[in-house]
Specification:
Elements lengths: L5 E10 L1 H14 L6 E8 L2 E4 L16 E3 L6 E4 L3 E9 H4 L3 H18 L5 E2 L6 E3 L2 E11 L2 E9 L32 H15 L5 E5 L11
Parallel strand pairs: 1-2, 1-11, 3-4
Antiparallel strand pairs: 2-6, 3-5, 6-10, 7-8, 8-9, 9-10
Length: 224
């Protein structure tokens, strides 16, 4: 088995959900013990995603926003412009990580980024994710196949939050949702990305990594 290596891909444009999901599935299905782990950073076109445990009554009024039934755990959430989505295609077995520890890696990384902007955030044992003053600022969800995970996290930076009013976010009626722009005036998108990469790499054991622009055959994914 080769030493762990991480490829971090920056995908630009507003990407449709389904082709990205299919690309994650394809990479996970074809990878082997020598394959590099990957992290994809991107933004999605507006979409609601309903996890395997999702109940239809948590989608209150989707309107014109499509709803996609997917294979991650959890309930329903929203993705859209202004939200940083980070997909982690990680060989958990190789890194000797359990699923709960991988969730904690994501939570701790987001909390550390927010702390850099003077924002105090916490995780909750009863509802995975990251919260600021009781409002959810980041959602998490994974799928595990043969010891390897995909899907990941969504981190609200500066976006329209009204689509969250049309669902019960992550299956919780009346859950408040927030974003970084409501708590800090000093952040910049690229800085947040780099801070999150730094903390994720540290939490994963400081494994070697390289950053790549694009490189995934996804409609709408243009190189910067």
């Amino acid at each position: 088995m080769s030493a762990p290596h991480l490829r971090i891909r920056h995908l630009s444009g507003l990407l449709p959900y389904q082709p990205v999901w299919q690309a994650m599935q394809a990479y996970t299905a074809q990878r082997d013990e020598e394959s590099a782990d990957e992290v994809w950073l991107l933004q999605h076109e507006p979409v609601y995603t309903q996890g395997r445990n999702g109940r239809p009554e948590h989608i209150l009024n989707p309107g014109s926003i499509p709803v996609v039934q997917i294979d991650r755990g959890g309930q329903v959430t929203y993705h859209g412009p202004g939200q940083l989505v980070v997909y982690l295609l990680i060989d958990l077995k190789r890194l000797k990580l359990g699923v709960r520890e991988m969730v904690s890696v994501m939570e701790r990384s987001i909390i550390a980024v927010l702390a850099e902007y003077g924002v105090q955030a916490v995780a909750r044992a009863d509802a995975p994710g990251v919260y600021v003053e009781g409002a959810k600022i980041a959602a998490l969800g994974l799928r595990i196949r043969k010891g390897r995970c995909y899907h990941g996290l969504s981190f609200n930076l500066q976006m329209a939050l009204t689509p969250f009013d049309q669902i019960n976010p992550c299956g919780y009626e009346g859950m408040a949702v927030t974003q970084l722009a409501d708590h800090s005036d000093s952040w910049e998108w690229e800085q947040v990305e780099q801070a999150l990469i730094t903390h994720l790499v540290q939490q994963l054991g400081d494994i070697p990594y390289s950053e790549i622009e694009g490189g995934i055959a996804i409609p709408g994914a243009e190189r910067r």
